[in-house]
Amino acid sequence: MFVLGCYLSQVGGYFLACIPYVLFDIIRPAFANDYKIQAKTYPSKQQMIQSCKDMMVSFSTVVLPMLIFGGFFIERIGITRDGPIPKPLVMLIQIAYFFLVEDFLNYWFHRWLHLPWLYKHIHSVHHKYDSPFGLVAAYAHPAEVVILAIPTFVGPVAVGPHLYTLMIWQAFRNFEAIDIHSGYEFPYSLKTLFPAYAGTKHHDYHHYMHSGNFASIFTWCDRLYGTDTGYRTYEARRREKEE
Questions:
Q1: Which one in 15, 27, 207, 229 has a CA-CA gap of 20 to 30 Å to 114?
Q2: What is the residue extent of each domain of the chain?
Q3: What is the CA radius of gyration of the chain?
Q4: CA distance readout (Å), 196 to 138, 190, 209, 228
Q5: Whole-number Cα distances in Å, 120 to 65, 112, 141
Q6: What is the full DSSP assignment across the chain?
């Protein structure tokens, strides 16, 4: 029941979070079009249907086995299902820590996936779409799904949080992934609240250029290691044209 509950929450949460962006791509309301990063580039209905099928295959053949495997070790690594639910402040601190760990490790794993052999045989699957949309946020080669699950779980394994905290963390992480692949950056986006948050425009550039901006959550690693130079030049030129 535990594995089934986690699986259903993962699948349900993923597709629910995609719904607003799917509607924007289908209906194309004027207010949303103004914040479309790659203007006039929308997924077709066939692409949306196929992406739903691809994601269900991935959830069933890759994510579900990982959940079953993880279920055998969940208590051994300190994650508990018993006792009182942690206080909100404790959960907030732990989840913030998970985001920091995820960002740093994901940066390097993602950057390594752009090495020629790994890109050709694994990561190119995720780069199928130069203009990504919400439904393909987690679309990737099975090996990549497993590889990038490591940064997601290193933080929880180190801390041993309550299962409730772990599930909220995964929900936040899924939403963040969908957000940066959505193709839209609205004025009320997370980047407005947290300037260090990379945001959709930052990651959309990565898909468009197939390089640079390797971090998926914050801008710190790309700035520190100089992998956002092309993006900053691109944005500076874009602003000059608008002035």
A1: 15
A2: 2-185
A3: 18
A4: 23, 10, 22, 13
A5: 25, 12, 11
A6: -HHHHHHHHHHHHHHHHHHHHHHHHHH--HHHHTTBSSTT----HHHHHHHHHHHHHHIIIIIHHHHHHHHTTTTTTT-BSSSPPPPHHHHHHHHHHHHHHHHHHHHHHHHHTTSHHHHHHTGGGGGG-SS--GGGTT---HHHHHHTHHHHHHHHHHH--BHHHHHHHHHHHHHHHHHHHSSB--TTSHHHH-TTB-HHHHHHHHHHHTSS---SSBSHHHHHHTTTHHHHHHHHHHHHHH-
Task: Report CA-CA distances (Å) from 38 to 1, 204, 234, 235.
Answer: 43, 8, 14, 14
Contacts of 104 (CB under 8 A, 6+ apart): 151, 221
What distance in Å separates the CA atoms of residue 45 and residue 12, rounded to the nearest whole number?
A: 20
For residue range 128-169, list pLDDT tens digits in order: 988 999 999 999 999 999 999 999 999 998 888 888 898 899
